[in-house]
Amino acid sequence: MAGEWVSAQRDRLVSEASLRNQMRVAALEQFSLRILEMAKLSMSQIKHELDHNTAMGSSHLNQALRETSEISSVIEHLYVNVDGRRGASDAKVFLGSKAELDLRSAYEKSGYDYWVSPPLEVGSGEDLIALVTKDTRNGTDRFIVAYMRPHVFTSFGQTEKLEDGELISLIGLDGITRARRTGHQYSSGEQLAGTLVMRKQSEEPNGTYVGPHSITQEPYIFSHRRLSEFGLFATSGMRRDRYLRPLQHYKIFVGAMVVAALVLSIAAVFLLNAYLRKQSIQLQTMRAANRQLNHAQLLGKMGDWKYDVHTSKLIISENLSRTYGVNQLVIDHRHLIEVLDTDNFARFSSAIEDVKRNKRLKVFELKSKIADGTHSYRRVLASPEMNENGDVIVIYGIDQSIDDEKTLRSLRSRAAAQARLQSMSALTATLAHEVNQPLTVISNFLSAARRQLRSDGRSDRQLNTYLQKANDQVLVLGEMIGAARELVSNSDKEMEIFELQDVINEAIDLLDVDPQYEVSSVMVVGSHETLSICGSRALVKQVFYNLLKNALEVLEDGKPEIIVSWAQSKSSLIEVSIEDNGPGFADGVRPFEAFSSEKPGGIGLGLALCRTIIEAQGGQIWVSNSDSRGARICFTLTQAN
Fold it and tell me: Dihedral angle at the C-alpha atoms of 614, 615, 619, 624, nearest 10 degrees?
């Protein structure tokens, strides 16, 4: 019985140590990813500067690098080579030709878009690690290096001292450590290629095992997680003997109990008091470990939880209790629905069932209500624990805020939209400038032709009619170009009130001039309704012209069938749809992307221009599922009050 009891205690201590190790390496992984994303954001700022100032001089380039590195809390220095034009935030990190060639070669061999180098010795004699990336934009080769101090990656827990025999490190898949901390000692650059830790990482990127320390060969409990995007993995280790040390006391206690049967009762009392003192010390150690874990979770905006499969109870940490504003640590489904809405509760329940069924780690995202009444996006990691029969009995989880990550995605999306609008604006301004002058000349020639007919005394009514229609079309086209120039200008746009049916008819009339378009196939549903629109008449006409023209051109064989319809919504918006019987859009096609076209000879600007016009007037445009085999494009316009 004593042997079984000691064995159970050993399993319990190892399990507790492994769980704590897994929590710490998860915190290190998320902290390291946050640091690298911050560095990537600074590098993106430099790329943005280079995109908008291709002729940037050396002094301006160095100043931009210096300002960006000073703003960043993680980057020490920045270095850039743009097609042989080099710049640095500090002269001591200015790479020589051979050093840069070696760094480029190592980066290209790594195969990653963003690669973290082993420690490099810079001009000041200090060792720094570099986040390296390279890309080509508009035929220009750009090589960017961001230098960071190694200890910045292991500083997430520096306010809490690591116990003797505990370590955390960030290691490259090449076997060289980028950053390492043992107790309060920092180091980097250790060569671990071929060691057990590298073999284990290769076999299982996210795992826990017991094995020898790569340097001291002492038995350790290690947990590691891979940062796949950067060719790194985070590892956390603790000396196994340190957590099994209480077993020696338990063995002494068992032996003492046997001897106590033969000695005086006072000896038994003495041993009991010693045992209680040891239990108190162990409890204090566990409380200190929990405080350290809570502090690490607080820095990482995360918390842990445990789900009991048999009782369906969720036990959350104090950090999560404060985050969600829940007064109790044990919550059931009713309380969980109060934190999550119905859809997110269903997503959580589905993930729990998936873990129970597949018996493996699952990562998913939720949107939940937090203590201040706002909503937070959360990333959840759920890992099962099984009994000896292989049944899942408990599911452990980590819940972390990804609001910053969502904000970063939003900023990137807005930057891409702004770049797209600037490109479209430049193209539109160029076309408006180049086409406007020939249109004026054509209009003058048409007017001169009509005057010449009158002066010659000719009264060919049909010819006069054709000349008048041609002149009208030139005036309409001039109106569209003027509206396009207004769209890309920086001045305030004047809104007009006009009838929706009139604009549709004018667009059809424009197409009717060209005999290749069979406008009789366009059916306008709801033409008896009178709806007033607030916006730019010429630009809305351009949208209908482009969309109807595309619909008439997509069907190569057979008669085209096009339906134009609209409906009013509750928010004073008119939703218009144009549906055709063509082949529709292929899977994966992004129809509103500039210079993306499925038509032979098309340049892909028509739908992109429609998107720019609609969004500039406060509307939205999208592709909807069609009841037929063709395509249905929908967009919204603002209804006049």
Answer: 70
d(CA 386, CA 288): 28
Side by side, which strands form the sheet with 632-638? Answer: 522-524, 562-568, 573-579, 632-638, 621-624
Q: What is the dihedral of CA 198, 203, 205, 207, to 10 degrees?
A: -100
Tell me the per-residue pLDDT of 250-285, one tens digit each, with 9 for 90 and over: 656 666 765 676 778 888 888 888 888 888 787 787
3-state helix/strand/coil string of 477-519:
HHHHHHHHHHHHCCCCCCCEEEEHHHHHHHHHHHHHCCCCCCH
The rounded distance, in Å, linking the Cα atoms of 99 and 281 is 54
Whole-angstrom distance, CA of residue 606 vs CA of residue 611: 9
Contact call for residues 631 and 623 (beta carbons, < 8 A): yes
| Cα–Cα distance, 419 to 452 (Å, whole number) | 50
pLDDT tens digits for range 524-559: 986 566 788 998 888 899 899 989 998 888 876 778
**First and final C-alpha spacing in the chain:** 86
Contacts (Cβ under 8 Å, ≥6 apart) of 312: 332, 333
Cα–Cα nearest to 560, from 543, 574, 541, 581: 581
Residue 493's contacts (CB-CB under 8 Å, 6 or more residues apart) are 486, 487, 536, 616
Q: What is the pLDDT of residue 235?
A: 93
Q: Is the pLDDT of residue 157 over 60?
A: no
How far CA 458 is from CA of 331, 443, 465, in Å, comes to: 94, 21, 13
Q: What DSSP line would sit under 318-355, residue for residue?
A: HHHHHHHT-S-SEE-HHHHHHHB-HHHHHHHHHHHHHH
**What whole-number distance in Å separates Cα of residue 173 and Cα of residue 117?**
11
Q: Rounded to the nearest 10 degrees, what angle do helices 240-260 and 2-52 cross at?
A: 160
Q: Which of 569, 611, 604, 570 is nearest to 589 (CA)?
A: 604
* Predicted model pTM: 0.41
Among residues 187, 186, 192, which one has the least CA distance to residue 212?
192
